[in-house]
Structures are given as C-alpha cells and as structure tokens.
Amino acid sequence: MNLWAVLCLTLLVVELQNGACQQVKRRKDIGENRIRPGGKRVKVWPTLKDGRGRGHSLLTQVLDKGRFLRLGQSTILTPGRNMELRCKGSKIGWSYPTYLDTFNNSRLSIKQSDKYSQLILTSPSAADTGAYSCWVIVCDGTECEKDHDRAYVSYIYFKDKDNLFVPSTMHFEIVYLRPDQPAVVPCRVTEPQAKTSLHREVPPVEITANMTQMAYDPTKGFILQNPRPEHQGVFYCKAETTDTPQISTKYQLLYVEVPSGPPFVSLEASPHSVRGGDNVNVTCTVLGEPDVDVSFTWTYPGQGSRPVHIQTSWRLVNRGMGYTTRVTQSILTVEDMETIDFGEYMCKAKSQHGETIVATTIISK
To answer: What pLDDT shows up at residue 212?
Structure first.
C-alpha cells in the first residue's frame, strides 16, 4: 500500500512540473525578445487591437483629484479647461497640432520625469483641435529611434458651438488638385457629429459626397479621390447642428498641370551675342507645381571677380483647360560686359523632388 502511495505522489509531482514549464514558456512567448539594429536586445510587448501597447506606453488624461482617463482614438473635451496628458516611460516623444510650434505658443509645455512625460496645454480653444500622440524612444548609445510598437494617438476635439470649424489663420486658402493623388479641402470640425457639406460659390451649388469620388472625414475635411479640372473654383464648407449653420473659410481649388518630379528648366541669354560694354540678362525659368519652392545656384565666368545682380520671383499662371502652373525665375544680370564675362553660364534649379542643371554660352560679336 505504501508503495502505491509513493508511486502516485511521484506521478503527481511530474505532472505539476510539466505544467509549470509550459506556463513559463507561454509567459516567455508573450514578452518576446527582439534584436534591434546595433545589436541591442529590447523587450517588445504585443500591440492591442486599438493600437495601444502595454501599460507603460498608454496615453492618459489627468482628471481632477488625481484620477486618470485612458484616451480612445478620439476624445471630446471642453475648451477653456487646462488639459494635462501623460505618457509612461523614461524617454518619450510627442506630436501635436503644428501651429502650436509655428507660433511658439507659451500655453504648451512638456516635462519629462523618471517614470512618465506630461504635456500641459493651458486655456485650450477650438483652434487646438487635432491629433495628439506620444511614443517611447529607444536608444542604443547615441542613436535613438521611435518605438512604433509602443505609440499611441488620440484625435482631440475641443467642442465649441460658436466655432464648429477649426479656426484658420487664413481667410482664403489654396488647394492644389493633382491627377495622380487625392486632394483634401481641409475644413475640419470641432463637433464630429455636425452635418457638414461642401458648396461651390459660383455657380452656387452643393457638392454631394459619396464614398467613391468624395468622402468627408471630420479630422481632415472633404477628400476628393480623383481630382479633375472641373473641380476647380471657389468652395466653402457648411456645418450644422441644432443651432444656426456656420460657414468655413473659402478655398480656391486649382488644377496642377505639371506632375511631381525634378524641376523642368529652361535657360536663355538676352542678347546671346554681345560686345564689350553691353548689358546681359541670363534668365533661368522653372515650370513646376504651384506649392513647391525652387532654389537657384549660379556658376558663371567672372564669379568672384565681377559683380552681378540676381533677382528671383515666381507667379501662378493658367495654361489652357484650366490648368495651373507655377513659373519661377531667376535672372542674372551682368552690366558693362568685359572679356572675363564671356563663356558658359550655368543654372542649377533644386526642389524637394530633385535638381536640374542647364547651361548656355555667351559669345562676343
């Protein structure tokens, strides 16, 4: 009998050990190790369905009496009440509506402590409506990067019945329409439940939204999936709740003729053949996208020895069928030509899409 008891106890101990080993293995799988570039091993926690990481990467709002509220994908707050957000972690990055940086707004402050970072916005208004996000920064020596697995974002509406649209610093905005990408009419709202519509000013007509050609996103505005030349014109948005309807700022929609790419450049000297003592203008012209800036660099024979005058300007022009193009010019002027001034003049035009170099030669009669 004693032998049977000992045998049963032995089998029971073996079963318990096997279960404990399996439990340890499952726990290890949950906190899987990942090796980042540079050889640093960090612990990465699974991401939840709504985009949140483990507890130390959550974005929360500090309420009265030390209470905390975990923010969802969107949050509605009341203007005028100070907002304090916290994100757990010893090294945290933040993003928020860009205009708060543009105007160096003193209402915004960010503080980092040992265990969390806090973002405080005093006296928020409808203009502060936008996306607020935080993320853990992982460092390997002097190199640091954003940990996308531990990031969180919440779009915060500061609901204001007197400002259904997020206020803009401009009373008239230009929206460029390109055939190869969607365009956005950025009339964002502070009340996500407001009924919003898009209207053409002349002739006065409401543009009906549908999911295939046009849709409305309260965090972005009206999205035109396939812009066409007939979408050009002056537009505005209208928002309605239970109160009087409100009108947004006006938007000038312009159709872009030139596709994205390196600058398309032409170079011309006037006159091309000169004598000593004459004046010469060398004009470098770029046709490009209306909202893409272009910079110029000149190389010329008398560089460093002879004075020249350089003037740069740009304008928007319509080039048939309602297409809009930006013409940017840089004009190099040489007065009282000397022997050293004859030769090759080179213009380099550079934009965010690349650069183009062209050259012309000025000869003596």
So the answer is: 65
